[in-house]
Each structure stands twice: as C-alpha cells, then as structure tokens.
Design brief:
Strand order of the largest sheet of chain A: 2-1-3-4
Helix content of chain A: 40-55%
CATH architecture of chain B: Alpha-Beta Complex
Largest interface: A-B, 21 and 23 residues
Oligomer: heterodimer
Largest sheet of chain A: 4 strands, mixed
Radius of gyration of chain A: 12 Å
Helix content of chain B: 25-40%
Number of domains of chain B: 1
Strand content of chain A: 15-25%
Order of helices and strands of chain A: EHEHHEEH
Bound molecules: iron/sulfur cluster
Number of strands of chain B: 5
Shape of chain B: globular
Largest sheet of chain B: 3 strands, antiparallel
Number of domains of chain A: 1
Structural class of chain B: alpha+beta
CATH superfamily of chain A: Glutaredoxin
CATH class of chain B: Alpha Beta
Radius of gyration of chain B: 18 Å
Strand order of the largest sheet of chain B: 2-1-3
Structural class of chain A: alpha+beta
Strand content of chain B: 5-15%
CATH topology of chain A: Glutaredoxin
CATH topology of chain B: Ferredoxin Thioredoxin Reductase
Order of helices and strands of chain B: EEEHHEHHE
CATH class of chain A: Alpha Beta
Distance between the termini of chain A: 6 Å
Number of helices of chain B: 4
C-alpha cells in the first residue's frame, strides 16, 4: 500500500474540515493516511520540513496545511480540496 | 534593500525600515529621524512598565481591519479556532505563527508567517472575488 501522509494542524480550519472527508475516503477506497500534526509535535514538523522541496512548489512556495503527500513518489496535493479531487489523487497513488 | 533603525529626535519613536518616515506619526515633526544602531533601537524598545498592555488579539485585528477592503471572518467558530492556534503558537514557539502553515526555521522566511501576514498576495485572496487569507481569518469585505 502506498505510504500517504496527511500533514495537518490542530487549529487549522481547513484541516478540521478535511479530516472527516479523509476518514470517509479511507472507508471507501483502500488507502490509509498517516496523520501528522505539525504545530504540537516537532518530530512531525521536522518530517514535513524534510519534504520541503517537493511540497513548497505545490503550496505557494510555502509549507502549508493540510497537505497530502505520497512519501515514495513525492506527489502532493495541498489545501482544502473537494472530496472527489482528493479521491482522484488518492486513487492515482494506489 | 536592507532595513535599518531610525529614532525620532523629538519623541524617540523607533522606526525599522529602508527609510525613515518623513512625518513622525507620533509627534508630527517633519524630517525628525536619525539613523541609529540596532543596539540603541533595542534599548529604546525594551518593554517599559509604563506602556499600556496591548489589546487582546481579536480586538487588535478588528481595529486593524476596520475600514479596509477586508474584514475579520464573520464565521465566529472558525475565528475562535484560529485565535486559539495563534495563541498556542505564540506560547509554544515565541510568535503568533500562522496555524495553517509551518515555520521553516529560517527567520527571514518565518517573518512572513506571523499573523496577520501579508495575505493580500496569497492566491486565495489576490484577484479572488470572495477571497480570503490562506487560513480564512480575513475575508474580502462584502
Ligand atoms: S494566513 Fe491568515 S491566519 Fe494565517 S497568518 Fe496570514 S492572516 Fe493570519
């Protein structure tokens, strides 16, 4: 199974909105997101910083949350996206 | 362009920028600024017990947005969550970092993540009819 990560922030409204959609997606198709909170966990923050080169060009040249990343291919999608868009992206990863 | 420090010779306001203000915003004297060292600026800016405490952040951003083309998001729940994150980031990481982005630990870059940031250049705001800052704390005024 592809190694997918969702970087999120506990007090980020976009992340809060995406979380139940991500959980729904995990029920619907065979994907799992490793959910990493980045403001209250420095190890997670460092992990995200480690992918900066792959993530920043997709996120306004910054590290923004929520960000969904395939750790192997470094393909990523950033921000509050429609359920179908996330699903299409996730399907491409499996 | 490098920013430098300036001090008003009349009222001791400190300015940090590439050039001093022509008119001192506090004492209204023209051409009153002299260039000073970072150390002098630091000493003048040392917190003074006499200075009144700033308003809480919600009040500060409400008055910052008053009369602007943007406003604080009327979605109270969203704003409450963001203000909580901003306050936690300030106590855990030293500054009011944006809850929807991650600091890089490069100080020059991370200055752009202190709330309120210059969201008018964000692609979620610039040229967008119902634009908002990346987090949705500020939205275009309706
Ligand atoms: S994106 Fe919005 S909440 Fe985040 S720092 Fe900028 S103004 Fe503040």
């Amino acid at each position: 199974m592809a190694k997918l990560i969702m970087f999120h922030g506990r007090e980020c409204p976009h992340c809060k909105k995406m979380m139940p959609l991500v959980e729904k997606l995990e029920q619907e198709i065979p994907v799992r997101f490793d959910k990493r909170e980045i403001w209250h966990d420095e190890a997670n923050a460092d992990l995200m910083r480690g992918y900066r080169e792959a993530l920043a060009p997709k996120c306004g040249n910054q590290l923004r949350v929520p960000t969904f990343l395939n750790m192997e291919t470094k393909d990523a999608v950033c921000g509050e996206v429609e359920y179908e868009k996330l699903k299409d992206w996730a399907l491409k990863q499996v | 362009m490098k920013k430098r420090y300036w001090r008003c010779f009349v009222c001791n306001d400190i300015h940090y920028g590439v050039a001093p203000p022509e008119l001192c915003p506090t004492c209204k004297v023209l051409n009153a600024y002299v260039e000073i060292s970072a150390e002098e600026a630091r000493r003048f800016l040392e917190p003074s017990a006499a200075a009144p405490a700033p308003p809480d952040f919600r009040t500060a951003i409400e008055s910052f947005a008053a009369g602007q083309v943007f406003q604080v998001n009327p979605d109270r729940e969203k704003v409450d969550l963001l203000l909580k994150g901003i306050a936690e980031n300030e106590s855990n990481h030293g500054l009011k970092f944006c809850p929807c982005r991650l600091r890089t630990k490069d100080w020059a870059e991370d200055q752009r993540l202190v709330c309120p940031c210059n969201f008018t250049i964000h692609e979620t705001y610039k040229g967008v009819a119902d634009g908002e800052c990346w987090c949705g704390l500020f939205v275009r005024r309706k």
